[in-house]
TrEMBL record:
Record-annotated DUF4959 domain positions: 19-123
InterPro entries, sorted: DUF4959, DUF5000, DUF5126, Galactose-bd-like_sf
Protein's recorded name: F5/8 type C domain-containing protein
Domain DUF5126 residue range list: 125-230
Organism: Arachidicoccus rhizosphaerae
Protein origin, superkingdom: Bacteria
Domain DUF5000: 256-405
Length: 406
């Protein structure tokens, strides 16, 4: 009985200590109502849309952090905190090159703030303005291309708009989405525009909601249509990939039968033992000038797209009169074939194999789409050359292949 009471006593003491500890949680051991000293020896390094500020910290032992208060533009306040373990902070988000006053304030561990040291920064041209000044728009098949430099690597949005009514009412039609990028060189294309002259407008925005002036241009997109697949036919050349014949079920035409999301085995699938880059050839029936293409990958077991034989790195070649005289031709040295481009499929999330995010799945389900380089000739025969699949080998799996042009 004595031992039981002793253990109960210990338990009550423990609970009391825990309760007391909880009341003191996150409170400083010592409360200091005296404000800390000021920073000194302040120096400024102005950069594009921002400034780096260095300083000497005050000597207070209980200094917690340095706070910078400023306005990125008139009436828009911003604040940056830097711990006592560094003597440099960055103030960013400026939308202009005007002078901006930054207040540097020291704060101790009790939350008591010092007075402020004021310093003036003069940021260089912000990234969104550099991008807007370099923006170039050019007509292409079914739309237009956008190219600009983004030397600061800022998160930018290029916003395209069109005046569909001709009365200055700017809208974004279906498929005319914002272009988001932080690449130092931004290049993309907008398609699905009618081949009539209309006024288009473009503005560049950064993540701080600064907008550039609007560029207005008149454009007449080149006529583009989806190339009719009813005239396509198999053309098996020497060294072309061997079809995986699953009891007579797998055929080349599954690559252009119009079914973008087939079940097994209604897909183009080659033998998996290939040890060199594989090629597949299509006769389009007549010559066409190409603008872009789309590959729909096959949904493998386990609901994965970025696996096995689905294309990752590949080339597209074109010809009008393939040389059939060589029994074992090498496309790399065959002058009757012209390389139209080398392409790489990007997995949006960059996640490892058999880990696919919603963005990964949506990109694959909608089809991996690529633009051909401008200025190509017209070709009747197309050859897909697989350089690497998602397994790191050469066999090919394609659910559907689609071309646009005229």
């Amino acid at each position: 009985m004595y031992k039981l009471n002793y253990y109960i006593y210990l338990f009550l003491v423990f609970c009391c200590l825990c309760s007391c500890g909880e009341k003191q949680l996150n409170k400083p051991v010592v409360t200091n109502t005296n404000p800390p000293g000021l920073v000194s020896n302040v120096e400024v390094q102005n950069e594009n849309g921002k400034a780096l500020i260095s300083y000497t910290l005050p000597s207070d032992q209980d200094l917690s952090y340095i706070k910078a208060e400023y306005e990125t533009s008139p009436g828009v306040s911003a604040e940056v905190l830097a711990s006592r373990h560094t003597n440099v902070l960055t103030v960013d988000g400026f939308g202009d090159t005007l002078s901006h006053v930054v207040k540097l304030i020291s704060v101790n561990s009790s939350g008591v703030a010092s007075g402020s040291v004021e310093v003036t920064v003069n940021p260089k041209t912000p990234g969104y303005l550099l991008a807007a000044r370099s923006l170039k728009i050019a007509t292409t098949f079914g739309g237009f291309t956008l190219n600009c430099s983004n030397p600061t690597g800022d998160d930018l949005a290029i916003i395209p708009m069109v005046d569909t009514s001709g009365n200055g009412n700017w809208v974004q039609t279906v498929g005319m989405d914002n272009v988001y990028s932080n690449d130092t060189s931004i290049a993309t294309a907008i398609h699905n525009q009618p081949s009539i002259e209309r006024k288009y407008a473009f503005t560049v925005r950064d993540k701080w909601q600064h907008y550039s002036d609007t560029m207005v241009v008149s454009l007449t997109p080149i006529f583009e249509q989806k190339i009719d697949k009813s005239t396509w036919a198999t053309m098996t050349l020497p060294n072309d990939a061997q079809i995986l014949n699953n009891g007579g079920w797998c055929y080349e035409y599954y690559m252009w039968d119009g079914n973008e999301h087939p079940g097994w085995p209604q897909t183009y699938f080659t033998v998996e033992s290939a040890t060199t880059p594989q090629t597949a050839t299509i006769d389009l029936g007549s010559a066409h000038t190409f603008s872009r293409f789309k590959i729909n990958p096959y949904l493998e077991v386990g609901n994965f797209y970025y696996v096995r034989g689905n294309p990752k790195d590949f080339e597209i070649w074109g010809s009008n009169s393939p040389d059939l005289s060589d029994p074992e031709p090498d496309i790399l040295s065959d002058p009757s074939w012209t390389k139209l481009g080398t392409f790489h499929v990007v997995k949006p999330s960059g996640s490892p194999s058999q880990t696919e995010t919603t963005a990964d799945q949506e990109s694959a389900y909608n089809g991996w789409e690529f633009d051909f380089p401008a200025g190509l000739g017209s070709y009747r025969y197309i050859r897909i050359r697989q350089l690497s699949n998602w397994q790191g080998t050469y066999f090919i799996c394609i659910s559907e292949f689609t071309l646009w042009g005229n």
